[in-house]
């Protein structure tokens, strides 16, 4: 039995999880170019050797996880791919104050450098063969997967895309030229709406924060939802929740709304159990990965992933914030509690899957299967 947090309020699963044809692996890739996008953002493109082309083939909306060792500790970060499917993998990065990766990628990495990159992952993906009309809503660096989605689906002449894109000012807009090029190339099939929170626009509706009220007015005026096949959301948690609320109020089906979070700014909620945890209480946690089973003691105040990593350094992870879903595993014995969940859908939770980075062991023995 597992006790888990339900999907976050107002957040829908991105899509059904794709079948796993093999676990994602890290490979050293050479940086082929670094392009300055704004004062605090850059696009980094990787060269893929011929022998790895199939492994690094990606679908629109997927992401890459990068890893590096900092002060003796392995760190990982996931970044959405911003290139159209079929091209070289490229990520867009906005610098975060004191960020372990973002400053390195935007200020220090140069063409010719080698970076450890994991093969593409993620169930946030768009199929260009379906055509249809798509609504994309993004804010800030949330444009990265949207650029991939729009540029890919528009290659189908039966597809159309409307993009609502929120930023502070015109100078903070990532990929401004590429978005303009898409508009020039596809004309009426690509409708682009810039919303600026700190810069006046000629149209009042396009000036201000892209919040629930503004989204409601923009969608009602510009986007006939009856004709929309899929909605794609990417941005901070507040934007995703606002968009989900508005779309629900307007009657759009939740199973056709796909989302990706790039940052969650609230800490995990504290768990309150009926009985206090005794000092030194621990569970025997068994992990199954790539057919190999390992058991180790894990304190009940420590997430399963962190505790098990002391004896299994090969366990998959990326954000450790309950957002990316990389550490997903199935509880096959015992009980855990998740502190937060922004990655798993209701069906996955019901089937016993958890985010091991957020799962605290509850029973004396717990088994989690990463191969499930």
Automatic annotation (TrEMBL):
Q: Which keywords belong to this entry?
A: 2Fe-2S, FAD, Flavoprotein, Iron, Iron-sulfur, Metal-binding, Oxidoreductase
User: Residues in domain FAD-binding FR-type?
Assistant: 24-127
Extract the ranges annotated as region (Disordered).
Answer: 1-25
- Extract the Gene3D superfamilies matched here: 3.10.20.30, Nucleotide-binding domain of ferredoxin-NADP reductase (FNR) module, Translation factors
Compositional bias, Low complexity, is annotated for: 1-19
For this protein, the record's PROSITE patterns field holds: 2FE2S_FER_1, 2FE2S_FER_2, FAD_FR
Residues forming the 2Fe-2S ferredoxin-type domain are 283-372
Source domain of life is Bacteria
Tell me the GO molecular function terms.
2 iron, 2 sulfur cluster binding; flavin adenine dinucleotide binding; metal ion binding; oxidoreductase activity
Swiss-Prot/TrEMBL GO biological process terms: phenylacetate catabolic process
Show the Pfam families listed in the entry: FAD_binding_6, Fer2, NAD_binding_1
Q: Which cofactor does it need?
A: FAD
Put simply, this protein is called Ring-1,2-phenylacetyl-CoA epoxidase subunit PaaE
Per the UniProt entry, what species is this protein from, by scientific name?
Terracoccus luteus
Phylogenetic placement of the source organism: Bacteria, Bacillati, Actinomycetota, Actinomycetes, Micrococcales
